Amino acid sequence: MLYAPINPADLLAVNAATAERTEAGNSIGAEGVGVVEQVGVAVSLVRPGDRVLPLSRGNWASHRVVDEADVVVVPTDIDLV
Description:
This protein has one helix at 8-14, and strands at 34-35, 51-54, 71-74. By secondary structure, the protein is mainly beta. The chain has a 3-stranded antiparallel sheet with strand order 1-2-3, with no helix packed on it. The chain starts with 7 loop residues before the first helix and ends in a 7-residue tail after the last strand.
């Protein structure tokens, strides 16, 4: 993960002010941009080096493993912030 800002929904989870509580050990983070480091043999939509926006929570982490269907490629000319 290259950038993972704080979303108001993340603050709700941190403060346990939401009905959908985060289980212990699960990373939160509703937004973020990462770079693909490795892909599996069946992956065809993304390549190592691509910047991607994961569509699932868990972006407050240094690394993630996600399905290629759960990311959107981010053009390199778009500012991460």
